[in-house]
Amino acid sequence: MEKVRFGIISCAGIAKKRFIPAITGASNALLAAVASRDPEKARQFASDHQIPEAYGSYKTLLNQKDIDAVYIPLPNGLHKEWSIKAIEHGKHVLCEKPLAPTQKDCEELAAAAKANGVTLMEAFMYRFHPLTEFVIRQVHNGELGDIHAIQACFSFVLNDPDNVRFQPDLAGGSVMDVGCYGINCTRTFFNEEPEAVSAVAHYTKPCVDDRMTIYAKFRSGKQAQIICSFSSQAPEGYMISGSKGWIVSSNGFRLGVEHGKIIQEIDGIRSSFEDATNEYTKMIEHFSDCVIHKTAPRYDAIEAGRNMAVICAAMESAEKNGEWVRLK
Amino acid sequence: MEKVRFGIISCAGIAKKRFIPAITGASNALLAAVASRDPEKARQFASDHQIPEAYGSYKTLLNQKDIDAVYIPLPNGLHKEWSIKAIEHGKHVLCEKPLAPTQKDCEELAAAAKANGVTLMEAFMYRFHPLTEFVIRQVHNGELGDIHAIQACFSFVLNDPDNVRFQPDLAGGSVMDVGCYGINCTRTFFNEEPEAVSAVAHYTKPCVDDRMTIYAKFRSGKQAQIICSFSSQAPEGYMISGSKGWIVSSNGFRLGVEHGKIIQEIDGIRSSFEDATNEYTKMIEHFSDCVIHKTAPRYDAIEAGRNMAVICAAMESAEKNGEWVRLK
């Protein structure tokens, strides 16, 4: 296999806006097909984006022998179901985050991928941007000294109450959809799982938060403060504070969408770094490389499950108006 | 009285670095004297800064009839004692923050000031900077829509373990010294008192935190996430998030020290504002104006007590490893 042949499950906006332009630039992957439950929609989408094949059902796409891998940009609540089906059809799976609604679900997916010998990865694209990789190196190499705290925020205003992100049966809610970034970057930069979390939320519907603030404490004494919201304006990114220096990202979760920029100050010396790399392309290339060479991806579904454990603990705490919830 | 004649109680660094350059620029105040417990130190300080009189004890200064007001930059734990003594000598008092270690202490000071007919104000200089005044107007006039959350941070590295800020008997600790800013700006911008706070701290000595993260919830649903530290590097300032827009300060608590700057985005339109005003001068002028015209200061010692109530609740929560502490 020289290039991984991808099919997209559904015509979601993120596929059009992010995945298709990204795969066009990938050296080891190509887009071979798209599937929609509506055959006409699939044909139109394929025609609009020069995709060779269009299928009128997801299952039909999964039955194609010439498809190696699928990209799943479905609503959050459908990620697990279609990841499992794709895995059982022997397809490698790159699925949008969050991979599944609980840690246990992620572990089931990991087991299914292993049993079927396929690569499964959650699409946390920001981790593949060269600036994120630089931040991770700086932090883990001790350039900022001992790391003490993070403040992170990912928030935008979603005015359509019918949006899938507000549907309880589709794993809606801001913590699930964008809070996952602040939690993921904290765990990644700290290289540690939280001991306990406290969260306070505002709900539009039962169980669907339109905003949440999360507070996490770690055994090492590190602290994280995270904001996520579908009803608030706020600059997106994170601030990492250490004993010797700090790093601030101005658009750390979508560095490639706008021109990515981070600022760091170490021992009083400030530097800024810019990089316009498309992080989706980097992610697709890494995933495809793992598929081609049968190597393990940078992070797996077990790791995605650990992120979900924190999200679920935050949701539980928010339901109890901020009561601390311990992680196992 | 055309100009308020100030005496400084002690030769603290902040008097030299901030207060003296500021009062030189004030239209309605002048610096008439300085007092130190060491007469030679007082003489040298007066000579270095062209201050007309030097006294070898604080009491001697308080006994001078030609002194209208005192500025108190003593270590935090001495603020109350010397504020009371100055008030009882009929002096108006501008005291560095925090005014006193508990809400009750602040209320006692307020009562003493009232009984003696003098003006008493805690020196929260950042509130007098034109950019802070602009932020308060934007927020309170609803320009950012409904306000949802704040993240604030004030942190620097203090390497000297003998510094007064590390002394338990002098009301040391980072939450007392710099956490007071994040708490103050949250209460000021939200125009609301927190319902409960949770905090986690790291201690260098019993009861003296060298860093703390604070999480506050409000009845209206607003949320605050605050970092303060004597052992961490971090950019200083705050981010206010609302339904229509946000404001970020890059150096919001010391806008006049460096060239002050804030950025706001409302309905997707980003603007930035710069202003190099010395906020200490503005504060001294406001205080002196209140003394001259016998008017109430913008905020009083009762208000300072409310800030202390939050600080004390955070300290209590941190002692209990983050347990929520309700405010009365």
UniProtKB/TrEMBL annotation, chains A, B:
Q: Which UniProt keywords apply?
A: Oxidoreductase
Q: Which InterPro entries match?
A: Gfo/Idh/MocA-like_OxRdtase_N, Gfo/Idh/MocA_domain, GFO_IDH_MocA-like_dom, NAD(P)-bd_dom_sf
Name the domain of life: Bacteria
Instruction: Provide a Gene Ontology MF annotation, just one.
Output: nucleotide binding
UniProt cross-references to Pfam families, sorted A to Z: GFO_IDH_MocA (PF01408), GFO_IDH_MocA_C3 (PF22725)
Question: Which stretches make up the GFO/IDH/MocA-like oxidoreductase domain?
Answer: 138-248
Domain spans labelled Gfo/Idh/MocA-like oxidoreductase N-terminal: 5-123
Q: Mind telling me which PANTHER family this protein's record contains?
A: OXIDOREDUCTASES (PTHR22604), TRANS-1,2-DIHYDROBENZENE-1,2-DIOL DEHYDROGENASE (PTHR22604:SF105)
Annotated family: Belongs to the Gfo/Idh/MocA family.
Task: List the protein's name.
Answer: Predicted dehydrogenase
> What lineage, starting at the top, does this entry show?
Bacteria, Bacillati, Chloroflexota, Anaerolineae, Anaerolineales
